[in-house]
Amino acid sequence: MATLMKNPRIFTVFLLILVLGDLSSNAEAKAFFVFGDSLVDNGNNNYLVTTARADAPPYGIDYPSHRPTGRFSNGLNIPDIISETNGWEPTLPYLSPELTGQKLLVGANFASAGVGVLNDTGIQFVNIIRIFQQLNLFRQYQQRLSEVIGKEETDKVVKDSLVLITLGGNDFVNNYFLVPFSIRSQQYSLEDYVPFVISEYKKVLQRLYHLGARRVLVTGTGPLGCVPAELAQHSRNGECAVELMKAAALFNPQLVQMLDQLNRKLGANVFIAANTNQMHLDFISNPQQFGFVTSKIACCGQGPYNGLGLCTPLSNLCRNRDAYVFWDPFHPSERANRLIVQQILTGSNTYMHPMNLSTILAMDSRV
Question: Does the keyword Hydrolase apply (predicted)?
Answer without folding.
Answer: yes
